[in-house]
From TrEMBL:
This is ABC-2 type transport system permease protein. The chain crosses the membrane at residues 27-49, 55-76, 150-178, 205-224, 231-250. InterPro entries: ABC-2_transporter-like. Keywords: Membrane, Transmembrane, Transmembrane helix. Pfam families: ABC2_membrane_6. The lineage of its organism: Bacteria, Bacillati, Actinomycetota, Actinomycetes, Micromonosporales. Coiled coil: none annotated.
Length: 262
């Protein structure tokens, strides 16, 4: 069953990639824009460290690690999640959701991951490059244990973004006319552009509970060797709980869905 789901996704992705690559100029312009925004972000962050060695306990290199992770996650969001969330309102209004629900595969999986947009694929790569540069500037060695913790937390962060997308899709099914819900997803990621320690309370506590800190701050801290190891199981539980909540919300939304003619 899982193999069939993956085969269907692969077919959908192949078609989407082929369609996007027909507009190569758009791809190149998006790549140039991605590079520009990264340079702009690095330049902006550097201003804070012109007269101080650290801000809220974070050095220049350590902050660049978090900014790099922001670009990585936001690029993944734009590539895998945003295209599907933008289509969700059309699925509900035009009745294509009815069609998808009749197919012999997981509608949640297809609706949430069936479309990809390769024009933003450079963002994750640039983000990882910046993260690597930041680690070097911070003068921190990366041990196998730190790398494993980082990869685990980065996976949890991606799962959190996926869960948020499914929740917003469920809201679209219920509200029908809901549009631009991707702005909620973007705002959630945007708050993780810098370490949450740079915010003052109560904002810092709120961003930990929401949980924005799990997106970039904690993965970056794990890579830099400044993370409390007790947060690792917490991150896994938060990610698993978010997926369970999102799946339950999606199923409940479908029970209230009357179809395009309803």
């Amino acid at each position: 069953m899982i193999r069939r789901q993956l085969r269907v996704l692969r077919i959908c992705w192949r078609a989407a990639v082929a369609a996007d690559l027909e507009y190569r100029l758009q791809f190149l312009s998006a790549a140039a824009l991605s590079a520009f925004w990264m340079v702009w972000a690095v330049a902006g962050a550097s201003v804070y460290f012109r007269f101080a060695g650290s801000v809220a306990g974070w050095t220049h290199g350590e902050v660049l690690v978090v900014i790099g992770l922001f670009f990585t996650l936001n690029g993944l969001r734009q590539t895998l999640l945003q295209p599907n969330l933008e289509l969700m309102s059309d699925h509900v209004r035009r009745g294509t959701l009815d069609f998808l629900l009749t197919k012999p595969f997981d509608a949640q999986l297809l609706v949430s991951l069936g479309r990809v947009r390769v024009t933003n694929l450079l963002d994750p790569a640039l983000g990882l490059v910046l993260t690597t540069v930041g680690v070097g500037l911070a003068g921190r060695g990366v041990s196998p244990g730190r790398l494993a913790a980082f990869l685990l937390l980065l996976a949890c962060a991606a799962v959190l973004l996926y869960a948020l997308t499914v929740l917003l899709m469920a809201a679209t099914v219920v509200l029908v006319a809901a549009e631009d819900l991707d702005r909620v997803s973007f705002a959630f990621v945007e708050l993780s552009r810098f370490p949450v320690d740079l915010y003052r309370d109560p904002a810092r506590t709120l961003l930990t509970v929401v949980p924005v800190a799990f997106l970039t701050t904690y993965p970056g801290a794990a890579l830099l060797g400044r993370l409390d190891p007790r947060l690792l199981p917490v991150a896994v539980l938060v990610a698993a709980g978010a997926v369970a909540l999102a799946t339950a919300a999606w199923r409940r939304a479908l029970r209230t869905y009357a179809g395009v003619g309803g």
